[in-house]
Structures are given as C-alpha cells and as structure tokens.
Amino acid sequence: MTSSDYLIVNLSAKEHARLFNKIEVNSRTGCWNWTGAKDRGGYGQGFYNGRKERVHRLLYAFFVEPIPRKKTGMEKQIDHLCKNTSCCNPDHLELVTTKTNCHRSNGITANNAKKTHCIHGHPLKVVRKGKRRDCPTCDSIRHKKRYQGKNREYWLRKAREASARYRMKHVSI
C-alpha cells in the first residue's frame, strides 16, 4: 500500500489556523462544531492538498491515525459517537467497518438488521451467510395455502415444470 491509499494529514501552521478558525467548541457536549461549509448530510467540508475533504476525517487523520481510502479494499468509515455530524472532535470519532457504522445508525438498514422476529412473531433465520433473512414458518404457511387454494393445479404444474427443467440441466444420461 502506498501513502496515496491512506489519508495522511500533516497540517502547516497556516492550515491549522485556517481549520481551527471555523471550529466552535460546545462546552456542554464537548463537540467541536464546524461552522464552515457543510455537505447535504451536515458534515463539515474543507480543502486539504487541493482536494475537498470532510473535516472530521482530516482531524481524525491528523490527531489519531491515517484513514484507509476506499480503493484499498479496507472498507472503514469514521463513526460519530456523539451522533453530531458537524462535530470534528477526534475523541468523539471512531474508525469502524462500514457494517458496524451502519448497525449503529437509526436508518432502515440498521433497524431491519436488528430485527430477530418477523411481523407475525416467528424467529427469522439466515438463508445464506450475509444474505437476506427469511421466516421459515411464514414460508411454510404461504406454500401450504398456495397448494390448497383455487390455483392449486397451476402451482402443481409450475412445480413439475421446474423439476423437469432441473433434471434436464443437472442429470447426465
């Protein structure tokens, strides 16, 4: 890995002053709130080495450790432990995996990942590692209804056709 694979920050005195002039410290929370330009998500933005960077990433890389860039294959993100997107206090930031960062949030993906039971109260089971989760009880009930309902013959015919396709593809003569 080369140094271009990591965000490594060495601030000059001028850059240091320029950044810290736009930081306002909240004495109650300890957050270093960025008062300069922000992106749509509320994260502070500034320029470093001619490149637009998020300020919390710059300060984390300056005070704590270099941050791997996405192209390295090491999917790491900075998590705001204080849940304040404009905060750039390195003590409130942690370098975590994308999955951990997602699970700590309150978004749809995180809320669904935290579920252990389906909407009917049956336990969810992982079908394939890392893939979607299904409720085997609800699947069983749905299949029983399908084969006992008014379209019974249709579903039986579909099952026979699928079975025949599988045999033709996988059974050698």
Task: Explain the overall architecture.
- By secondary structure, the protein is α+β, with helices and mostly antiparallel strands.
- It has helices spanning 13-20, 55-63, 98-104, 108-113, 136-148, 152-170, and strands at 6-7, 23-25, 32-34, 45-48, 51-54, 67-68, 76-80, 93-97, 125-126, 133-134.
- The strands form 5 sheets. Strands 1-6 form a two-stranded antiparallel ribbon. The protein has a two-stranded antiparallel ribbon with strand order 2-3.
- It is elongated and about 80 Å long.
Summarize the structure.
The chain is of the alpha+beta class. It has 6 helices and 10 strands; from the N terminus they run βαββββαβββααββαα. The protein is 36% helix and 18% strand.
Give the topology.
Layout lengths: L5 E2 L5 H8 L2 E3 L6 E3 L10 E4 L2 E4 H9 L3 E2 L7 E5 L12 E5 H7 L3 H6 L11 E2 L6 E2 L1 H13 L3 H19 L3
Antiparallel strand pairs: 1-6, 2-3, 4-5, 7-8, 9-10
